[in-house]
Design a protein that fits this description.
CATH topology of the largest domain: Tachylectin-2, Chain A
GO molecular function, one term: hydrolase activity, hydrolyzing O-glycosyl compounds
Largest sheet: 8 strands, mixed
Pfam families: Glyco_hydro_32C (PF08244), Glyco_hydro_32N (PF00251)
Family: Belongs to the glycosyl hydrolase 32 family.
CATH superfamily of the largest domain: Glycosyl hydrolase domain, family 43
Number of helices: 2
Number of strands: 40
Subunit structure: May be present in two forms, a 70 kDa monomer and a heterodimer of the 30 kDa and 38 kDa subunits. The ratio of the levels of the two forms within cells appears to be regulated developmentally.
Radius of gyration: 23 Å
CATH class of the largest domain: Mainly Beta
Keywords: Glycosidase, Hydrolase
């Protein structure tokens, strides 16, 4: 254990409020996965740049990746399928890449499972899901692109050899496609079938994302035999003014406890979750509600808001997530994709783009109104050297550097406690209609507060020219306290490219500080990504950053307090090792 120094936050460089860059095809600044750069789709870099590559997140050695597809657990093996461009580092030439694991951390890459080869997917094999049918038979449903107009249909694929433990080869039978859009559906926005669930009436059901006149819709289909599908007249759910719904996910959760449930479970004491990825904002939203099996309708609870003001799985760079039930540990696990926040030119130059976030266990919070997420327990096997800080006090403007670990590749858990809420700043009523990240931009980590801001300075350079703060700030709002959690990339790099996206991501944390004056934070720091989990996973934020000074051994980690209320911290931090990923075992294009 070694803690280098206490310093004053007043040494932090001043800066202007972050400028939000809005691209024409999205709101949060991250390029859409389907944005086409035909001239770059098959551009192979002369050399792959490694400076910002992650150490323990999932990513191939080179090229573009996006959505995790149809993750599943089958006969003791975890399967991760994901969208992959074998020939370049921008979106295009998409295949279903395939890797397998026994622990969700160490992976073996295989040949692509699905790739364009038939008339029903000649122009693309897009996202979908896996289902385990009776008789322990896995099947994949995926979206095929049949023409240059991006007409979308739903296809299936099955393993060629069930005796192969890795299910290396997949067959696309000639009776595809299984589902074709009728005249009431926008056939160019008709994609991403979910894992199927089996109803008490003996019918399988799936939902598919789409849009109608700017209304996001979850179409519902049913089938007795999984081959012949009929569209249900009523929608599973819809919401006005939300645009196209991508990558829907629909599953049950227990009212009590952290165990997961199979998609077909429909017993007592459950709620259902509908998650959608909004093509317009590039964020993931979800509601919690009731699934009426007789009417085939999903109704969100009155505590869940549909649309842009609703709950998010992650308030940062996290999209196109897909969950699955893991019967080996009785849990639901969710994967998400974190795209790059630099430019397309940067991606072409460095030769890679996109990572998969750390898989998370997911369950319903005891309050019944939101989900909780936490890195799967297997991640702890990568923890190496550990340092601790016990009962350390930070006064206003103080920070302390944590030494003895690798700050560029670390896992940090810290609890902040305080004795009083009396100094909490008033919450400005004019902020009520603002998004949390707008408030974070106004009240960033350098703006002195009362109770907070306090947190971590991750991927910081020695003299703090660069750093990415992850922090809390407590406000007093009428008869309650509001907790803001921020992950602010605005100072993350000295790179002055104006097209680089450096947002101050943020979300509110639903905790009652009057009962327990503590806030916990876990941050997974990995060179160009900071995944953070506030209050035990109630609020999650993923940031992609590209420091120029705070790289490798030159990165630093600090805990800080810039509020007038003294803060005590309990900190545990670990250097993180690298998982085993033998990419030479897989397809040559890796």
């Amino acid at each position: 254990m070694e803690y280098l120094r206490k310093s004053s936050l007043w040494a932090l460089p001043t800066f202007l409020l972050c400028v939000f860059i809005v691209f024409t095809n999205n709101i949060n600044g991250v390029n859409a996965s389907h944005k086409v750069f035909p001239e770059l789709q098959s551009t192979i870099p002369i050399d792959v740049e490694n400076v910002h590559r992650t150490g323990y997140h999932f990513q191939p050695p080179k090229n573009w990746i996006n959505d995790p597809n149809g993750p599943m657990y089958y006969n003791g093996i975890y399967h991760l399928f994901y969208q992959y461009n074998p020939y370049g580092s921008v979106w295009g030439n998409i295949v279903w890449a395939h890797s397998v694991s026994t622990d969700l951390i160490n992976w073996i890459p295989l040949e692509p499972a699905i790739y364009p080869s038939k008339v029903f997917d000649k122009y693309g094999t897009w996202s979908g899901s896996a289902t385990i049918l009776p008789g322990n038979k896995p099947i994949i449903l995926y979206t095929g692109i049949v023409d240059s107009n991006k007409t979308q249909v739903q296809n299936y694929a099955i393993p060629a050899d069930l005796s192969d433990p890795f299910l290396r080869k997949w067959i696309k039978p000639d009776n595809n496609p299984l589902i074709v859009a009728d005249i009431t559906i926008n056939k160019t926005q008709f994609r991403d079938p979910t894992t199927a669930w089996l109803g008490q009436d003996g019918n399988w059901r799936i939902t598919i994302g789409s849009v109608w006149e700017n209304k996001g819709i979850a179409l519902l289909y049913k089938s007795k035999d999984f081959m012949r599908w009929t569209k249900v007249k009523s929608l599973l759910h819809s919401a006005n003014n939300t645009g196209n719904w991508e990558c829907p996910d629909f599953f049950p959760v227990l009212l009590h406890g952290t165990n997961g449930l199979d998609a077909s479970y429909n017993g007592k004491n459950i709620k259902h979750v509908l998650k959608v990825s909004l093509d317009v904002t590039r964020f993931e939203y979800y509601t919690i509600g009731t699934y009426d099996t007789k009417k085939d309708r999903y109704v969100p609870d009155n505590t869940s808001v549909d649309g842009w003001k609703g709950l998010r799985l992650d308030y940062g760079n996290y999209y196109a997530s897909k969950s699955f039930y893991d019967p080996s540990k009785n849990r639901r696990v969710i994967w998400g994709w974190a795209n790059e926040s630099d430019t397309v030119d940067d991606d072409v130059k460095k030769g890679w783009a996109g990572i998969q976030t750390i898989p998370r266990k997911l369950w319903l919070d005891p309050n019944g109104i939101q989900l909780v997420q936490w890195p799967v327990e297997e991640l702890n096997t990568l923890r190496e050297k550990k340092v601790q800080l016990k009962n350390h006090k930070l006064k206003k403007g103080e920070m302390i550097q944590v030494k003895g670990i690798t700050p560029a590749q670390a896992d940090v858990e810290v609890t902040f406690s305080f004795s009083s809420l009396d100094k909490a700043e008033p919450f400005d009523p004019s902020w009520t209609d603002l998004y949390a990240q707008d408030v974070c931009a106004i009240k960033d980590s350098t703006v002195q507060g009362g109770v907070g801001p306090f947190g971590l300075l991750t991927l910081a350079s020695e003299k703090l020219e660069e750093y990415t703060p992850v922090f809390f700030r407590v406000f007093k709002a009428q008869d309650k306290y509001k907790v803001l959690m921020c992950s602010d990339a605005s100072r993350s790099t000295l790179e002055n490219d104006k097209t680089m996206y450096k947002p101050s991501f943020a979300g509110y944390v639903d905790v009652d500080l009057t009962k327990n004056k503590k806030l916990s934070l876990r941050s997974l720091i990995d060179h160009s990504v900071v995944e953070s989990f506030g209050a035990g996973g109630k609020t999650c934020i993923t940031s992609r950053v590209y420091p120029t000074l705070a790289i490798y051994d030159n990165a630093r980690l600090f805990a800080f307090n810039n509020g007038t209320e003294n803060i005590k911290i309990e900190l545990n931090a670990w250097s993180m090792g690298k998982p085993k990923m033998d990419w030479s075992f897989g397809h040559s294009s890796y």
